[in-house]
Amino acid sequence: MRIWGVAQEGDYDRDDSDEGQGRKMLTVASYNVLAEFEYPQKEDRYPLLVNNILDDKADADALVLQEVTDGFLSFLLSDERVSDRYPYCSHGPPDQPGMGPLPNFLNMVVLSKVAFDWESVSFQRKHKGALVARFRHVGKWQGDEFKPVVLAVVHLSHGLTDGAVASRKGDIKRLIGYLEENYGGCPWVLAGDWNIATSKEAIQEALEKKNVSDLTVEQWKGLDTIFKDAGLVDAWEVTAEDKDGGATWDPPVNGVAVTLSGGNIWPQRYDRILVRGEDFLDVKEFNMFGQEKGHVGDAVEESFASDHWGIRAVLSIGGFGDDEKEEMEQEQEPENPLVVPAHLEKAPKALSGAGGIKACLSELNVTPGEEEAAQRREAFELLKTLLLDATTKTPAAARLQSFVVVVPVGSYALGVWTTSSDIDVCCIGPFSSNTLFSVASSSLRKAATQGVRNLRRVKANTGTMLELEVQGVRMDLQYCPAASVAQQWPNVLRLPAKDPVWSLAPQTLNKLKAIRDIDYLRRSLPDIESFRLAHRFIKTWARSRGVYSACFKGLPRSSSPSSSF
């Protein structure tokens, strides 16, 4: 089971912010999961809610949920299929030690495939507000300034009364004002449960019962004007052919909504996704999900998971819409007759579902288990401790007062190793190679009782290397003489290539390049877990087809995640 942790500032670091320019689509989904108000809370609907969230119709880059409770979020994030699809979440599971409870009984939560940070915006009513997330690496450049895509999540007060309508109007104005002040010029996506009545019959009924005044009805009609004045378009309206439909809360169809309707049986389009594209985002598709029934607990009759349908909008990015794509394809040069064309095919059902690839790799014993991962961590830490102890006791170390760094490289450092991989280790320090390997060999021989075997010392293209076996794990140890690099570790990795610290011999730079490449990849990849999964899958496929190479994606072998590409 995944252990969720709090993101640190370094998790967002990268050298540039060009991910949005590489993306062609951004998909946003919203789902009100309907909280349980009884205590103790029942979990009967939770499996059906999770199935809806994992449905292909709900698959999104960012999924926003409303009415999330502590119990449901803990249940949701404990499902590895969910954590595999969405490695980033605005809140951690409350049942995990050190996380703590959610701020309210009813909460808004963002799950995402892309790293983001977020802030809250308070509204007039207590416990009401908006969650504003920004994707630091999905956005556009405006001159020298990067404008990130901003996602605002709302769950406005319900009710068709004078006070409720006035409150919603004030909340909407406050949110738009906040976005204008803090994120003017950025592409916006506003999603969630707006609780804005769209049924004329419901409005007329409220008038006849004197629940609302004529003035309130005029205010209600003016809400869409507020959106239009702010440059926001409704994703459903852009794509819908039937402008009278689109209800996301539909008591005539959804029996769960009937139970909670309080006599209001008119279908309403409460849930919306609004977009201000800023010439960067353009609405292309819209669909609903969560419309399949299933068994809830021991109930004989099937039921829906929530009183709301989920909604999803597909947005094209930066002029990569269908028309532009067709024009680009028409302008492409004729195919090279010497190149065999690739024809895309839909993945088998066993692999296309959430978690399917991970399950397949587990069956093939490609994905390491927790026990093996722990064994390798312990073996690496033992080797690191032995090397550091040995080098700090040398006269040269006392004289130079220098640092020694021991780091993994290759597949282990990037987290794409398999059960058949060894661990590549690089030691950086102030000594000559002969001194280091002489001291290291002596120390390692003395550690034989701890499960350390010094297999042999070999001359490789990259220099001298020790082949070791530490507690049953095979390792290759290389050394890089670079005192200035070790002294400034790890901040040195962020220094540009022109910095004097990199004025080193070509063979030394080649070894350090492996480490710098891994560091750059780890900071640049927006979804490291998906990358690792894809890498293992492609590697497994390539080996099964007899595809081998010494390099992967142009990286030198010593820095490549695998030598089988």
TrEMBL record:
InterPro entries: Endo/exonu/phosph_ase_sf, Endo/exonuclease/phosphatase, NT_sf, Polymerase_NTP_transf_dom. GO terms for molecular function: poly(A) RNA polymerase activity. Residues 1-20 are annotated as: Disordered. Residues 10-19 have a biased composition (Acidic residues). Pfam families: Exo_endo_phos, NTP_transf_2. SUPFAM superfamilies: DNase I-like, Nucleotidyltransferase, PAP/OAS1 substrate-binding domain. It comes from the Eukaryota. Residues 29-281 form the Endonuclease/exonuclease/phosphatase domain. Gene3D superfamilies: 1.10.1410.10, Beta Polymerase, domain 2, Endonuclease/exonuclease/phosphatase. One of its GO terms (cellular component) is nucleus. Residues 405-440 form the Polymerase nucleotidyl transferase domain. This is Podospora anserina S mat+ genomic DNA chromosome 3, supercontig 2. It comes from Podospora anserina (strain S / ATCC MYA-4624 / DSM 980 / FGSC 10383) (Pleurage anserina). The lineage of its organism: Eukaryota, Fungi, Dikarya, Ascomycota, Pezizomycotina.
